[in-house]
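pasting for ref
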Amino acid sequence: MAQRNYLVEGLSGAGKSSVYEELIRRGHWAVSTDRAWKTHDSMWDEQRAVGELESPEPEVLFVCGSSRNRDRFLHHFAEVFNLRIDDDTMRRRLRERTNNDTGKQPGELELILALNRNGEKPAGAIDVDATRPLDDVVDDVLRLAHCAPVAGDSTRPPWSRRGSATAHALVVSESGETVARIDYGWSGDVLVTLLAYLDEQGIDLADSDVLTPDHRARHLALLDPIEFDGAVLRRYYEARNETTAPRVDYAMLDGIAFLRDTLAPLESPNVAVLVLGPDSLPE
């Protein structure tokens, strides 16, 4: 297995996705289990999870997420970091976030708050105060994991560079109001390559910058990351871009989840505008 696997987990609203994206931005290896491992029943797919956790590379892997069957995987982790927030912070984050409906219903919110008050976390997990600014939280996670800062962009593969988001989607209502923004945390050129691959599979999302309820009806059920083989995606990326790209499969699978999350709220009359930065456009 990797020399050190670390689990970053917590309840809904604790900030797992934000920590994941910031770790990537800083050049560390991370995987979002909600996007890469989770099945329809909110469990981690055992074959995929164990395959990642027992891979000899990278040297350090941060796994961000939780599931109902997480405990069976805990022996794979050197440490578990539990993101802790207070009830008021949890209420505010669940109310304000636009990319996930978990906790929006009163009964669901009360259940999450009850788990928070009871200190729900894996046995032996180290609490990290996640009410602080994101930079401070990630600094703490890296310190506890004994990880030095990544030296600089020159050490990062080009598909993981991200000074700021190079691809995102805006979900827009009939009145023109932006009701949700979904960010893609990797280099936009990966998304361009992924859209070409999906188009060859009959999932035609590359034909327009505007995605509609029709795209949702035809393609949403097909965009489940767990149904895609990361090795196949990596080989496609490498062939199309004439380069070697170890572990670009993370970014490709994340792109599938990004597109799924973009299509999910497109009930009529909402549409989504796909925005690619200038560095992400093909020559």
